[in-house]
Design a protein that fits this description.
The chain is an alpha/beta fold. The chain contains ten helices and nine strands.
Length: about 290
C-alpha cells in the first residue's frame, strides 16, 4: 500500500536543502543576541525544543521552548517564534493573541492563507514541505533544517546522510519489540521526543524518550529483552553496555540526529505495513487540532 506518509518521508533530504536556501535569503529569523521563545504543539513543540537548545549552545542568545498552551506571558522576549503546520491550532492562535503588544512574533507555517499567518504579519511559509499526511514528517524536519542552517549546522551534510539512509535496509526483527525508547543529547533530545511521538502516532505502541544521561536515573528499570533503545547521536557511548546488560537491543545513530530521524520514520512505515496499519489514518488524530469551546 502506497501512503502519503511513505512518500513524504522520503522527500525530506531535498526539503532540507530548500529550507536551507530560505534560511540564507530571509531577514526574519532570530538575530544573534536576541532572547527568543520557540513555541509549538506536538511535533512542532519538539522542533522548537531542538531549535532552542542548538541556538543557545551556539552562543547566539538565550533560547527557550514552550508548548503553546504553557507559554509564559509574564516573561520578556525579543521574539516569539510560533510553529504550526496548519496554522489553525487553537492553542497556537491563543498564544499569538496573548503576546504583549509591541513584542515581535514570527510565524512558521506550511500555508500562507491560514488564521495564524493572517494574525501574524511576519511569517515564513514552507509551502514546498506541506503534507497530505496527518502525521508530520517533512514539514517538521524542514522547519528544523531552516533554523539549524541559519545557526551554523551543515544541513547539506545532513541531507546527504539522509539520502544515504534512505537507500539502506530497514532494521529487521522488530516484531517482538514492546517498548521503544529514544535517547539523545542537545538537538537530539527534541528529536528523540519526536521519534517517540511518531511511533506512538503511527503504531500506537509503547514509546518513551529521554536525555541520554537521564535514562540511567530510573527509566532503565523498565528495560528488558523486548525493549529497543535507539540513541540518535554518538554521544555518551559508555551507556551502551549498561543498556545491553538489561537484555535490551541498542541501536546507535551515526552522529547526525537530523539524518537519523529519516531512518526512524522508515522503521515506522515498515512496521505499519507489516502490521496492516494505515499511517495516513491514525486513530483519534486529525491534521488540525481545533478546540470546540462552544
Amino acid at each position: 500500500m502506497t501512503t502519503n506518509f511513505a512518500q513524504e518521508l522520503t522527500s525530506q533530504p531535498q526539503m532540507w536543502l530548500l529550507a536551507a536556501k530560505v534560511a540564507s535569503s530571509t531577514s526574519l529569523l532570530p538575530a544573534p543576541g536576541a532572547r527568543v521563545a520557540f513555541v509549538g504543539c506536538g511535533t512542532s513543540l519538539h522542533v522548537a525544543q531542538a531549535t532552542a537548545i542548538y541556538r543557545e549552545r551556539q552562543g547566539l542568545g538565550e533560547s527557550d521552548a514552550f508548548p503553546a498552551s504553557e507559554m509564559p506571558l509574564d516573561r520578556r522576549y525579543d521574539l516569539f517564534v510560533i510553529i504550526s503546520r496548519s496554522g489553525t491550532t487553537t492553542e497556537v492562535l491563543d498564544a499569538a493573541r496573548s503576546v504583549a503588544p509591541g513584542t515581535k512574533i514570527l510565524a512558521v507555517s506550511a500555508g500562507d492563507d491560514t488564521p495564524l499567518t493572517k494574525l501574524v504579519p511576519n511569517r515564513i511559509v514552507l509551502s514546498f514541505a506541506n503534507e497530505a499526511s496527518i502525521v508530520q514528517t517533512r514539514f517538521a524536519t524542514s522547519v528544523l533544517a531552516l533554523f539549524l542552517a541559519r545557526f551554523g549546522w551543515d544541513v547539506a551534510a545532513s541531507a546527504a546522510r539522509g539520502e544515504s539512509l534512505l537507500g539502506q535496509p530497514v532494521l529487521e526483527e522488530l516484531d517482538d519489540v514492546e517498548q521503544f525508547v529514544f535517547l539523545g543529547r542537545g538537538v537530539a533530545v527534541g528529536l528523540a521526543a519526536e521519534a517517540a511521538l511518531k511511533l506512538r502516532e503511527v503504531l500506537g505502541v509503547w514509546t518513551e524518550s529521554y536525555s541520554t544521561m537521564e535514562y540511567r536515573h530510573g527509566p532503565i528499570a523498565a528495560a528488558g529483552k523486548r525493549s529497543l533503545v535507539w540513541i540518535l547521536d554518538d554521544a555518551e557511548p559508555s551507556i551502551d553496555t549498561e543498556i545491553a546488560r538489561t537484555g535490551a537491543r541498542v541501536v546507535r545513530g551515526g552522529g547526525d540526529p537530523l539524518a537519523e530521524i529519516v531512518r526512524i520514520h522508515r522503521v515506522a512505515q515498515h512496521l505499519a505495513a507489516g502490521r496492516n496499519i494505515d499511517p495516513d489514518n491514525p486513530p483519534h488524530l486529525t491534521r488540525s487540532i481545533v478546540l470546540d469551546r462552544g
